[in-house]
Amino acid sequence: MRLMPITVAMLACGLFGVAAVAQDQKPEFEPYVSAKAEEGFIPRMKSKDGVSQSFGRPLKAPPGVTGMYYGIWKAGPGVYRSEGARPEVFVVLEGKGKVWIQGYGEHVLEPGVIITTPAATPAEITVEQPLKKISWVDVSRCPIGDKNPKNC
Question: Which residue among 4, 38, 61, 123 has the highest number of C-beta atoms inside a 10 angstrom radius?
Answer without folding.
Answer: 123
